[in-house]
Amino acid sequence: MNPFNINEKGHLTIDGVDTTYLAKKYGTPLFVYDVNAIRNNARAFVNTFKELGVKAQVAYASKAFSSIAMLQVAKQENLSLDVVSQGELYTALQADFPVDKIHLHGNNKSYDELEMAVKNNVGCIVVDNFFEIELLSEILEQNQTSMDVLIRVTPGIEAHTHDYILTGNEDSKFGFDLSNGQAEKAFLLLNQQKNIHVKGLHCHIGSQIFETEGFVMATKRLFETISKWKQEHHYSPTVLNLGGGFGIRYTEEDDPLPLSGYVEALVAEIQQQVDQLGMDMPEIWIEPGRSIVGNTGITLYTIGSKKEIPGVRKYISVDGGMTDNIRPALYQAKYDAIIANKAGQPVAENVSVAGKCCESGDMLIWDLELPTVNHGDLLAMFSTGAYGYSMSSHYNRFPKAAVVFVENGKDKLVIKREAYQEVARYDLSYE
């Protein structure tokens, strides 16, 4: 069910709560998440695996949006967790997330990050390079303990997405390449370590993917390697992690699959491959982030100034911008929005939405059809639940926005708005 509706006042609501009420109570810019929608997205993945009778872990990719409250919801939904830094791991520990369901990623894991993961006995480390193998082996020896790992590989499959978010092609900063022997060399080296257990392989081919062909092709490539290792090294993986990247709808141009469709395609291909090889079905791991939170969140802005260039363009400016959503400037990402306090009114003008940062590239939306816009109106920008707050900055010394969760008609503040004193809290005087 769509959590966004219009009430009798003509105002946009989220799970029954009036967005104008939220803006007045908490201020703007404001991130608002529908928690029931988060839960429904998580369950779409988890329940599909259950229905297919396949052992699996659905690991929330916390880089999309990480906070104590968000990870508590993920824990309640029995998700696993993908973290890529000490900060994300620390947040998970503060949320009392089960450590055995935490997977540590990263292309440049430091000694301290690996040590923190080892000392907290996380469930798995996804190994990314040869230097990391040396560090991890040293840390495990010093701590007299062992660790399960996956080997991250680049299968050479290019997803249909933006170049900046391609991570599975051969020329990537992530993982061991399958085509030049790096992956097998890493496998043999890891197998020599007495404190390391290689559970299986991991790959991630990109982000915002609307079809299953890329995932199927990547799976085939992985099983070419698995077949070779089974024959030559008598090794069969107990885990196969196909990453994330499942697309969501940002605008009418986007046509994503149902979330269950990705799972069904992956399971079907893996089942076919294991049947051909005569091996047991591995546990399947996936790492959805954006597809769990992206379309569950909106950002509320207050509209300030207007500027019209006759015969060219009409600008409206809001009280946020690239400091709370860098994606339009970074990826030329497209979004949709409405006037939340005029949600039922007809379109009257075409405008472009500018942020208030001192950058000409700080544009949130180009060419948006809206009712007549006035100073003080409330703009609601859709599908901002992923990579908005998590990539926010203090550029121009703007404080970070607040975050509110709404569930069953009730609202709760889960991240406070920063005060200006907090923006400068680490500054030291030079006088």
From TrEMBL:
Pfam families: Orn_Arg_deC_N, Orn_DAP_Arg_deC. One of its GO terms (molecular function) is diaminopimelate decarboxylase activity. Substrate binds at R290, R327, Y331, E359, Y387. Its cofactor is pyridoxal 5'-phosphate. Residues 31-385 form the Orn/DAP/Arg decarboxylase 2 C-terminal domain. The gene is lysA. Pyridoxal 5'-phosphate binds at G245, E287, P288, G289, R290, Y387. InterPro entries: Ala_racemase/Decarboxylase_C, DAP_deCOOHase_LysA, De-COase2_C, De-COase2_N, Orn/DAP/Arg_de-COase, PLP-binding_barrel. Transmembrane segments: none annotated. NCBIfam families: lysA. Keywords: Amino-acid biosynthesis, Decarboxylase, Lyase, Lysine biosynthesis, Pyridoxal phosphate. Pathway: Amino-acid biosynthesis; L-lysine biosynthesis via DAP pathway; L-lysine from DL-2,6-diaminopimelate: step 1/1. Its EC number is 4.1.1.20. Belongs to the Orn/Lys/Arg decarboxylase class-II family. LysA subfamily. The keyword Lyase applies. CDD domains: PLPDE_III_DapDC (cd06828). Homodimer. This is Diaminopimelate decarboxylase. It catalyses: meso-2,6-diaminopimelate + H(+) = L-lysine + CO2. Residues 38-293 form the Orn/DAP/Arg decarboxylase 2 N-terminal domain. It comes from the Bacteria. Specifically catalyzes the decarboxylation of meso-diaminopimelate (meso-DAP) to L-lysine.
